[in-house]
Amino acid sequence: MENVLEVIDLKKWFPGVKANDGVNLSVRSGEVHAILGENGAGKSTLMKVIYGLLEPTAGEIRLFGEPVHFRSPRDAIRAGIGMVHQHFMLIPAFTVAENVVLGDEPGGVRFRRREASRLVRQLSERYGLAVDPDAKVGDLTVGLQQRVEILKAFYRKARVLILDEPTALLTPQETRELFRIIRALKEDGVPVIFISHKLDEVLEVSDRVTVMRQGKTVETLETKGATPQMLANLMVGREVVLRVEKPPLQAGEPVLQVRDLRVRSADRHERVKGVNLEVRRGEILGIAGIDGNGQFEFADAIAGLLRAESGEIRLEGRDITHLSPARRTELGIAYVPQDRQLDGLVLSFDLADNLILRDFRRPPFSRRGILNRRAAESQAEQLIQTFDVRPPDFRRRASELSGGNQQKVILAREVSRDPVLLIAAQPTRGLDVGAIEGVHRQLVRLRNEGRAVLLISLELDEILSLSDRIAVMHDGDIVGIVRGEEATREMLGLMMTGQRRKEGTA
Amino acid sequence: MIFSNPEIWALTLSMAIPLALPAVGGTFSERTGVVNIAMEGIMLIGAFFGVAFSYWTGSAWIGLLAAIICGALTALALAWGAIHVSADQTVLGMGINVFAAGLTTFLLNTLFGYSGTPVNTPKLPSFSIPGLDAIPYIGIIFRNQSVLMYIGIVLVFLAHWFLFSTRIGLRMRSVGENPLAADTLGIPVWRLRYFGVVLSGVFSAIGGAYLSIGILNGFTSNMTSGRGYIALAAMIFGKWTPLGSFGAALIFGFSTALGIVLQGHGVSSNILQMIPYALTILALTGLIGRSTPPAADGIPYEPRR
């Protein structure tokens, strides 16, 4: 079979870091080739080198058998490489058609807008990527925006498509739709390079997979013969525990009691429509559901970030429905929010300051309104060590840390306060296998210590492997609650679409 | 009744032009991503050198050309600071305004003395448009106006077409929205930003020359009297489009004209002078149709290599 893209012993060194240090890759025509590796394994660097954004230190890249040296993305595009970046390169204020044709517009002096629309409509029909060419990109969902990026690549006659972490921002439905598109492209003979750190996605969509670790390609194997355990071990370089060990535990009295809770989101839509729920001491209660069914508004309402329209929230028997978030924090609610960069951290603060965000009002961190920096630093030093935050330096800004380490900082802050209830919304989103393992261990430890954990996740596997009980949310209501050990993917999947199930013994 | 007096409409239009031109200029600059508050200063430069060269060469047209060149050079300085060395664009613009006010006053006094520019300085011609000026009631709008007013109106429409209907206009706007995306598509971000800023200098300078050699034939210290700032307001109020800026300039020009007409009627013209700024604040807060700037406006772009 012909090799579309070959990378031979590629090296890219930065001062002090060998981001790529011996990468070998060969992508055959008509295959979906996954590149799997943890965050920081060098996947992004490799893609930037291939796309002409970085110049390699050593090594060779061959495209359709010809050695190539790209000085800029322009060269790469001209040679037929199409790249969809993790963070889209789109202009929200422009229409779909304008975004697609930009830089290579139809017309002479005048921009022939209607011709552009026509070309884009043709292209979207040709590749089965339905999207309205005259819609404004800013009005589109993330999934549709990604299609626009793919159309951009094909408008420039891409002969190989590179998708960099394409599912990071997608909902499960959008992910499924993307996989359908990838398969259709493959049928069409377009080779697709799929970069990911998610095992299940790689197993589902790829033909072959190349695993990267610490800047090197470790192995390329047929996906058919691979197992999740095999890939995880290759990625991390040691035996990884994928299934969380959890001793059986008798749940105690209820910590959180929610009655008939109704919540409106910031855009005034009712998102939580009369939820009743209890979370008990010593249990992890998982909330499963498709994104947008009210689960995150529910979490915000319990943390006090959204006002309850009606209903009641009790923590250890005490009515907290109308208390401020700060009061709830004092009473023992810890919250790991869904968007760690937006709501979890102040990115421009250093770690010491980020770690006292919850407690800076109290001694020893402040007295009479004056902060005590030394207390913050000694607390930070200790937490950074306990939670293995890297680099272990509290003077670093939060923005300088990797996603996994940012999440460690948030967990350290929330968990170290001895909460009675921890709300964890998507605690492992975007993290790699090793980091996920660490987060899961923390959640289970809290549970084993007899605290209550409310876990909200869009990843069914995460819900299944951690939860003692699983509540399924659909359209702002709990459709049913099942015991963790009785639940199956199929059962939950059905309930997530709104089908009720007779409530069992849970 | 004052509104039935057609004079006020003619006055509105001639007061709107020196606001509309720098507003359109600012639109070009900000649409490519460079915040430009230097219109006031560039107008002063244009106004002064327009008069100076008109007097020295005896031709108002050469004066206009000199105004354009000097305005473009001033804008080039702003562009270099904002684009090449990523300096703070607001501070740069303010610096140019203060510099231009000082420079033009200094040159006025040293070159022409304290009696001001000579009274025999040639000005650009004024004329009426035959036919249009005969229309009853509104005909006065096209009667005996400066040639620059007609050119200005044409330039506004041309600018709008250029920015929204040409390929280069699309590219200019892309650079002001997401320079990184534009760069990866092979669009020269820096070159287009320079182009946008220099265009803003050209338009602002014509606006300044309109005051000094279009309707008058002389320069006085600080003769723009804040029009560059009202133009800034017109640009924002017009949602960063040339036609919108022109519409806003007409509203603001009307309030100035009203101020002139109402003098002696016991209404304070200071109140009327507030109107443009009050409207702009309302526009920015979203009370009268939300006005959002280009996404990358004011953010320097560093190409990576």
Q: Could you characterize the architecture of this molecule?
A:
The complex is a heterodimer of chains A (506) and B (305). With 506 residues, chain A is an alpha/beta fold. Chain A folds into two domains: 3-236, P-loop containing nucleotide triphosphate hydrolases (Rossmann fold, 3-Layer(aba) Sandwich); 254-496, Rossmann fold. Chain A has 17 helices and 22 strands. Chain A has helices at 43-50, 73-79, 96-101, 113-126, 142-155, 172-187, 199-205, 228-236, 295-303, 325-331, 340-344, 351-355, 373-386, 403-415, 433-448, 460-466, 489-496, and strands at 3-14, 17-28, 32-37, 58-63, 66-67, 81-84, 160-164, 192-196, 208-213, 216-222, 254-264, 270-280, 284-288, 308-315, 318-319, 333-336, 366-367, 370-371, 421-425, 452-456, 469-474, 477-483. In chain A, strand 9 and strand 10 form a beta hairpin. Chain A starts with a strand and ends in a 10-residue tail after the last helix. Chain B has a single domain (7-119, 126-285), classed as ABC transporter involved in vitamin B12 uptake, BtuC. The longest helix of chain B has 27 residues, at 189-215. Chain B contains eleven helices and two strands, in the order ααααββααααααα. Classes of the chains: A alpha/beta (506), B mainly alpha (305). Chains A and B meet through helix 2 of A and helix 6 and helix 7 of B.
From the structure above, extract its key features.
heterodimer, A: Rossmann fold, Rossmann fold, 17 helices, 33% helix, B: 305 residues, mainly alpha, two-stranded antiparallel sheet, 67% helix, 1% strand, globular
**Total number of beta strands of chain A:** 22
Kindly report the spatial arrangement of strands forming the biggest sheet of chain A. 6-7-8-3-9-10
Strand content of chain B: under 5%
- Number of helical segments with 4 or more residues of chain A: 17
Largest interface: A-B, 22 and 22 residues
Sheet with the most strands, sense and barrel status of chain A: 6 strands, mixed
Round the Cα radius of gyration of chain A to an integer and report it. Answer: 25 Å
CATH architecture call of chain B? Orthogonal Bundle
Structural class of chain B: mainly alpha
Mean pLDDT of chain A: 88
Broad CATH class of chain B: Mainly Alpha
The secondary-structure element order of chain B is HHHHEEHHHHHHH
**Structural domain tally of chain A:** 2
Helical proportion of chain B? 55-70%
Task: Tell the overall outline of chain A.
Answer: globular
Which fold name is given in CATH as the topology of the largest domain in chain A? Rossmann fold
